[in-house]
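The following record pairs a protein chain with its ligand, S-adenosyl-L-homocysteine.
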Amino acid sequence: MLVQADIFMEKTIDESKQGESLILEAKQDNHRKLFIESYGCAMNFSDSEIVASILSDQGFNTTQNLEDADLVLVNTCSIRDKAEQTVRKRLEKYNAVKRINPKMKVGVLGCMAERLKTKFLEEEKIVDLVVGPDAYKDLPNLLAEVDEGRDAINVILSKEETYGDISPVRLNSNGVTAFVSITRGCDNMCTFCVVPFTRGRERSRDPQSIIEEVNDLWNKGFKEITLLGQNVDSYLWYGGGLKKDFSKASDLQKATAVNFAQLLELCAKAQPKMRIRFSTSNPQDLTLDVIETMAKFDNICKHIHLPVQSGSNRILKEMNRLHTREEYFDLIDNIKRILPECAISQDLIAGFPTETEQDHQDTLSLMEYVKYNFGYMFTYSERPGTMAERKMEDDVPEDVKKRRLAEIVQLQREHSEIKTKEYLNTTVEVLIERESKKSNTEWSGRTSQNIVAVFPKEDYKIGDLVYVDVKDCTSATLIGNAIGYSKDN
Ligand code: SAH
Ligand code: F3S
């Protein structure tokens, strides 16, 4: 189901993959076993592929068996309290396994590592290694320390690191879709959000290395990529490092700068048959250029994930979201005008501090205006160190948050159903990704709009791009029959 209530899941990740261990093609000379699992956003899954690549050169092959592991790594998420609790529970499980396999070492990666730092080593006796999101290249040194019996930690954030020079190993892959990281960190400082503290300053990756990765993926048979960043629309390559002030830049530097619309175009042209998606867009940074570039290229998927968080101007301001409800509507109008077939999805938070019933009604009326195809909805979770935690009281009672969330989820369900039904008796183009979860005689794939479609397998195979006649649907899934290969297959 695409409508997700306050659960531990981020948008681009298939729910069934949360926490799943990763498989890496074995190198014969490697004798140590790594069990690595990831929680949270797509970026964490992508980062684990970088980590597995770094450790592959250190003698590690991955295993799916926790009991066999010499090294267990968990890539963690801090976005909501619930996400952190899930990781704490996993540590208990590792503890039980360590009693049987005392030589096993345990490392914590990602946002919780960055947030808790040495506290992790103090609070969780099982943990031997703590590594923040910008320090993965230091893993060989840190592991050497751990091998000598010492705890090891590196949580230094970088202004430059993009891992652009590391070729990620594609783990847990269907061989069809892949993530390509293009920016790291976030400079936006939304007052509820822990990401700027755990992932540091925003930096963009060299476009050349991005295009090389896209070409390499195509040559390996991949058919769809998702360009990833906390805020992809603020991508700006300017020779690396932090974004610079254009007003002080020389003309030469300006001429060589690459923004997100230009990067999209470069990717779309480099592989005209590769489907291209991107996530996530912040409304304040999504420009008309990007929407127009999407319109220009068939292979750029017609879906924009456009988190709004709240429909109330007062709350948007308290959240430090740098746009108003009216500006958001203008953006939605522009998307609908330039890209009438584009799907739009949201993230929403219920019960931000000081949120009144009227603010909540504003959120519902904003949803009515946009009629999102799907969305990810959460109750507000206070995060230590954020502006909201320091300056505001978490004053909306839990039961009120939950009731407002339920109303938001219910409305989204109704809208999803309306939007999904629009495809009834039409023909859609679907990229086949995997077997349907409900039936082993059916394929499951997604349309350009990111809507899931299921249909009988016949002689089609994973990776085929096919036309599907839509005969039926649930609120989030199209059901039909394939009628042939797409002209672009
Ligand atoms: N730009 C990021 C956003 C990361 S957080 C991206 O790439 O998706 C994903 C979503 O989690 C946010 O859009 C927001 O809706 C939700 N979220 C973030 N902090 C939260 C908090 N403290 N409580 C509840 N939800 C939160
Ligand atoms: Fe978080 Fe806002 Fe950045 S939600 S990731 S601070 S755009």
